[in-house]
Amino acid sequence: MTTRTPGDLQKQRTPRWVRGKWALRLLMAAAVSFGLIATLWLLLSPSPALAQDTAPTTPTLLEVRNEAGALQPALVLTLRNNCHDPTVTTVTNPASYPILLDLAPGDCLLALAPQRFVTTTKEFHPFPAFAPFGATGNIAYVTVNTNWTVGTDGALISPTVSSPGLPILLTTRADAPLVLFNLVISLEWDAHEALELAVFANALSAFGADLFDASNGQMTLGRALIVAGAEHWRDADFQIMAGNDVWPNADVGGIVSNVTQLGNGIGFRPGHLRVGRGWDGNSANQGLWSQPTGARTLVHEFGHYGLALFDEYLGLAPDGTDFSSYCTISPSDPGYAADWASLMSYQYKANEFALRRDGNPMQWTGRCRQTIQFQMYHLSDWETLASRFGDTNSRRAGRSKCR
Q1: Please, are residues 305 and 254 in contact by the beta-carbon 8 Å criterion?
Q2: What's the mean per-residue pLDDT of the chain?
Q3: Predicted confidence band at 12 (pLDDT cuts at 50, 70, 90)?
């Protein structure tokens, strides 16, 4: 896997998806306070259903700059009704300034300034929305700096238009990063019914929301392509098996492009995340992936595949046998809830990554040191993510969201 930084802006023609493919044009589903989910749809290719809007607007000059005041090439999204309306009204790839946008009172303005493109050897992974910024070829994920914050209550806070027509400045910040994953999902069977495909589209929306929540607003699903009939099977990130007896599993670090070995001797090789048609927490014979049990299981398995985290419900004895060691406490404990760690231990209740911090048993206990995750890295989940994705902002990484 290699990285690219934005260079000269390039134009790339949006691909036309052939018959049999389901192109999911999805930026992210952002989980915010009190369970409210604001879905932000990114227009990755022409779509009149998303582009049309009848609200009265006013031409408005807009600039995007970083904290040092330098102009930033950025993807700008405009959403109605203070980010609560999932309809994208304006999407633009500004290659030069000034930018003139048609804005209305109450429009929510989101700026995504690309910082890093990580490529993959898996085919069929274009990211057209970021092609004008240099994201050519196959892209595993994009890291951007944003102009919004996630409040202490978990709410998404971004600039809102109050006086259309007056110049607007959006400021992207290094302490507001977002990793956007670009995934291919392949169904092993021929799925001809739109309703059947929609189940997996809804599952990915829920998956993106839960990942956004677990990462404190720093990771989510950026783009997904769903195909059927085992199309792109070898290049798929998620392989959805036809059988109803498949236990969810994933290759740890399988998102890498080539065999990779870390300094501590841990090695990864390209792989996949594999699940069956359904999952209810106990059986693959029933349970929709779009339900909380299914979506959270996808996040747990993606923790292995995409984030290279190991399980936190088992430890390994010197003789190689395993033993139970839940991080942070046993799922049977009546106090165990969603704001406890760790989703790499028991995702059906917990939706937080573990953070080694003394005095906070909801985030870290002695049991966490006995898990495979800590035995492999000698790091907590958050420490592993910081070392892997380069986010050293401990304040954001350590914040526990209120609900």
Answers
A1: yes
A2: 81
A3: very low
Angle at which helix 194-214 crosses helix 292-305, to 10 degrees, equals: 60
Write down the domain spans for the chain. 3-227, 310-403
% the chain with pLDDT above 70: 79
| Intra-chain end-to-end CA distance of the chain, in Å | 37
Spatial separation of the C-alpha atoms in residues 382 and 356, rounded to whole Å: 8
Residue 361 has what DSSP assignment?
A: T
Q: Is the pLDDT of residue 203 over 90?
A: yes
Number of helices and strands (H, E) in the chain? 6, 21
Instruction: Give residue 339's pLDDT band: very low, low, confident or very high (50, 70, 90).
Output: confident
Question: Please, are residues 298 and 203 in contact by the beta-carbon 8 Å criterion?
Answer: yes
Contact 168, 63 (CB under 8 A): yes
Residue 398: φ, ψ to 5°: -95, -5
Res. 101: pLDDT tops 90: no
| Joined tokens for residue 152 | 């202490």
Give buried/exposed letters for 296-315 (b at 16+ CB in 10 A, else e). Answer: bbbbbbbbbbbbbbbbbbbb
pTM for this entry:
0.85
Backbone torsions φ then ψ of 368, nearest 5 degrees: -65, -30
- What's the chain's length in residues? 403
CA distances from 316 to 139, 231, 334, 369 (A): 35, 38, 26, 11
- CA atoms of 242 and 153, how far apart (whole Å): 40
Q: What pLDDT is stored for residue 255 in this prediction?
A: 98
Residue-wise pLDDT for 109-159, tens only, equals: 889 999 999 999 999 999 988 888 889 999 999 999 999 988 776 677 888
Q: Is 209 helix (H, G, I), strand (E, B) or coil?
A: helix
